[in-house]
Structures are given as structure tokens and as C-alpha cells.
Amino acid sequence: MRPLTVIGNWKMNGSFASNADWVKTVCRGMEQGMPAGRKYVVCAPAPYLSQCGGLIRDCSLAFLSLGAQDVSAYSAGAYTGDIAASMLKELDCAYVIVGHSERRQYHQEVDEQVAEKALQVLDNGMIPVICVGESADERNSGREVEVVRGQISKQVAILQDRLADCLIAYEPVWAIGTGKVASAEIAQDMHRAIRLQLAEFNEDVASHVGILYGGSVKPDNAVELFAMPDIDGGLIGGASLNPQDFLAICQA
Ligand SMILES: O=C(CO)COP(=O)(O)O
């Protein structure tokens, strides 16, 4: 049985004051009781990981963890501005997003680099959240499965069996920050396609990998999405900034 995982991705938002309010509100809400067997993660901007890590430690809820939004593909050295996976581990991160479409779009990240980043995360005892997804043009021209298959096949080639310890996030680019959520059926179809592709490589890996959906998830559409058999949780952008909305999605 794959646990449901809900991850908030704050992207480039937050401040010391608002982060403290957010973590306190979410912890207080979660202390009232949460559905059993689920995992919750908040991915804060790098400068706030230390602060958020401390706040999360203080509320000591075993099911709430800290995550980062990106990591270097290298372990150490002359890479000005980069952050090594070992540093994220020291900051108490348990999860790291890699290959988000905004990294691919604004920083020209390619699949091989994304897989190298995932390896760094795994080597440091954390869980990579590998993002894939097609653009609007790719879907409109009927190439969505081909595009996502291409992205997944690069991950399989480099990560092999280690994919069993990763999470995959299907985030169609046209649904990110647009309010245009993929219907539960559209999302389920792609999640199924990803799982079948992984099964071509290794059935065990395919049955273990959690596949999260991301793209305009809100409290009012989360229940339907999370009920789908191949959707194992969500990667939440905009709605995760509001602690009450994030709590509502975590309870969906
Ligand atoms: O990119 C996302 C999460 O990583 C999704 O963002 P939104 O939830 O704002 O659409």
C-alpha cells in the first residue's frame, strides 16, 4: 500500500514572519488529528529551511517533514550559488523537489540533470520528488503521453531500481498556477500510463513508486483527485501558501 503524500511547494514566497505563522497554524490544525498513514511535507525556499526546520521540529509531529525545492547535481566544489544535497540533509530536509517545470523553463534543466540531482538526493538519504509533465502545446497536439514517457525513460535509464525510493510528480505545465486543474480522469490516465511504463522496467518498482499530481490542486478538487487509484497524493503550489487551504487539502 502506497501512503498518500501531500507536499506544499511555496515556490519563491514567504518571510520569517509569515513562515512562523504558517507552521504554527498548520501544526495546531494537525494536532487535532489527521487521517492515518499519510505524509505531509512543506518545501520552503532555501533561506528559510533552517527556520522552518526548527519550527517543524518544535511541533514534533512524525508525519510532517521539511523539503527543499531544488538541489545541485554535484556533491561539492566550485559551483557558486548551488546547494549540495548534504547541506539540505544537515538542515533536516527529508524530501527534495527536482526537475520542476519552472526549473526546466527558466533554468534550462534537462532530464539527465534532473536524474543526477535525484541521485544526489538519494545518496544523502532523502526522497527526491521528480517532476514531469507536458506543455499545453504538447497536449493539444496529442503528444502528452509521448512527452512524459520520454521524461520518465531518462529517469529509468539513470536511476534504475533506485526509482523505488523516489516520488514522481505529474505536473502538466498547463495546469500550474492557471486554475485549470486536470480532471481526475485526465490525471488518472497519465498516472496509469506512468505506472505501466515503470512496470515495463520493473513491476516491483512500479507498484512501490508514489505518483503525485500537481497543478491547481485546491481544497474543493483534492478529494476527487486523491480518490483515483494511481494518484498517491499531491504537490500543491498556490493553495499551499494559505495554511487553512493546505490543511484542508491534507485532510481531503
Ligand atoms: O507547480 C506546482 C507545485 O509544484 C503547482 O502549482 P499550483 O498549485 O499553484 O498550480
From TrEMBL:
Instruction: Cite a GO CC annotation.
Output: cytosol
GO biological process per UniProt: gluconeogenesis; glyceraldehyde-3-phosphate biosynthetic process; glycerol catabolic process; glycolytic process
Superkingdom of the source?
Bacteria
Q: Indicate the residues that form the catalytic site.
A: H100 (electrophile), E171 (proton acceptor)
Q: Which UniProt keywords apply?
A: Cytoplasm, Gluconeogenesis, Glycolysis, Isomerase
UniProt-listed Enzyme Commission number(s): 5.3.1.1
Where does the protein end up? Cytoplasm
Metabolic or biological pathway, per its Swiss-Prot or TrEMBL entry: Carbohydrate metabolism; erythritol degradation; Carbohydrate biosynthesis; gluconeogenesis; Carbohydrate degradation; glycolysis; D-glyceraldehyde 3-phosphate from glycerone phosphate: step 1/1
Please write the reaction equations for the catalytic activity of this protein: D-glyceraldehyde 3-phosphate = dihydroxyacetone phosphate
Which Gene3D superfamilies does UniProt cross-reference here? Aldolase class I (3.20.20.70)
Amino-acid positions noted as binding substrate in the UniProt annotation, renumbered to this chain: N9, W10, K11, G177, S216, G237, G238
Instruction: List, alphabetically, the SUPFAM superfamilies matched.
Output: Triosephosphate isomerase (TIM)
**What Pfam families is this protein classified in?**
TIM
| GO MF term list | triose-phosphate isomerase activity
Q: Can you state the subunit structure given in the record? A: Homodimer.
Family recorded in the similarity comment: Belongs to the triosephosphate isomerase family.
Name of the molecule in the record? Triosephosphate isomerase
